[in-house]
Structures are given as structure tokens and as C-alpha cells.
User: Fold this.
Amino acid sequence: MSARTFSPKNKIGIRLFNLFKDVIVAKFLMIGGSLDGKILEKSYPRELIHKFNNSVSIECISSGEQLREINAIETYYVERTLIDGKFYAYASSRSLKENEADELIKSSALEALDNNA
Assistant:
């Protein structure tokens, strides 16, 4: 079999490669919630970052059910911003004022995304 002949298994591998070839690992400034001010490394591009917190006990008062435990989840929405000609990634769990993200990024140690991101 020559290098230019692909079996179906190889075609699947090529499709997966093409799907993930533009995914990079980037650093995100987390804004709000329990991760406020932290810098996390995650795959990029993405739309959301979830943080699963400890279990929380709840009781349904109306039906009188017993206590149940659920996981509290924080959702952070991913954005990027242009500062001095460079893009920076951040994720926020709350509404931000105009230019608030830029100010927080400038005061942090966040690294810019690659030029191609």
C-alpha cells in the first residue's frame, strides 16, 4: 500500500486530525465565581468553561421529598479581547462593565494568544 492510499481507518484519523488541528492550549483569565483572578490552561477555541463544585444538599419543600445532593456548577463564558495588537482569552461568570476585562487582563500575568488563534 503506498503512502497516498488510505483505508477507511486512515480516513477517520485524517478527519479527526483536521477537526483538531486548529485547537491549541491557551491561558484564560477567570473572572467572577470561585475562580476569580485565576489563570487556567484549557483548549481553545471553546465557548464555555464549567467548574464543578462540591455537592450541595437540597430538599424539595412542596413535595416533602428527602434531601438530595446535587453538584453546583459554575459556568464561565469564553471571550477574547484585543489589547495593544494582541489577543487575550478570558472567561467570565458574570456581566462585565465596558473595558473591565481589559483592565483586569492588564493587571494580571495573562499571556497573549498565539497570532493565529
The longest strand covers residues 68-83. Residues 4 and 77 are 42 Å apart (CA to CA).
